[in-house]
Design goal:
Distance between the termini: 37 Å
Oligomer: single chain
Largest sheet: none
Number of helices: 12
Amino acid sequence: MSAVTDAAPATARQGAVVQSVRDSLVIARRNLIRMTRIPEMILFGLIQPIMFVVLFTYVFGGSMQIGNSADLDVYKNFLMAGIFAQTVTFATASSGAGIADDMHKGLIDRFRSLPMARGAVLTGRTVADLVQTALTLFVLAIVALLVGWRPGSVEPTNFGKIVGGFGLLLLLGYAFTWIGALIGLSVRTPEAATSGGLIWLFPVTFISNAFVDSSKMTPWLRHIAEWNPFSATVQACRKLFGDPGLSPSDAWPMQHPVWASLIYSILIIVVFRTLAVRKYRRATS
């Protein structure tokens, strides 16, 4: 009798998880279909990071010194990990704007009337954004190779390490997408979500090791950069890609960048997914 009563809640929990996964995939599919019907969303999402690659490479490249070298080819290989990381985190703004738009148009109210898991709406949206980010990253990697990025230019690497580096980038992008979801739920209009989603990203991405050698920053700024989650992923990618410009800092995230990147990203997902789902339930209750 006890075994039967214990099994019932477990079966119910399992059923709830299965339903949540199924509902999330349905919402993700809906968002992906919507993206294909608005091709300019994908096009503009590709143009911006390509512009960053070209501008940083050919406008700033000749003025930058990495280590003791001011060679443009060295800067190209140094730069790409930062550009990749910036691209996946800037997708945060579109996620927040999309959720704010759904809230503004009353689409979320229609989802409320359906027998579906509450968190599935947000999870489906973030998964769809992850797919779009992966596509953008793939195109950007091809552009990077065309302008002269060569993995393994300093340290030997292999296919597994390169795939691992891109996996960390996508995990960071997915983590930041949940910050965007929380912002999208906290504002009234998509325009406010876009602005609010970008303002805080600029200091996060620029006070880091993404575009310049952080060891040349003033001490207080350097400490912020070294413990910045964004810097940990950039440092991990440079290490896995075999690119130049690894920070010589003794800070733990710089000495163990792969673990630091994983821990930071998972922590961001746990904290901001919890806050976003709680906000969503309050907004739709």
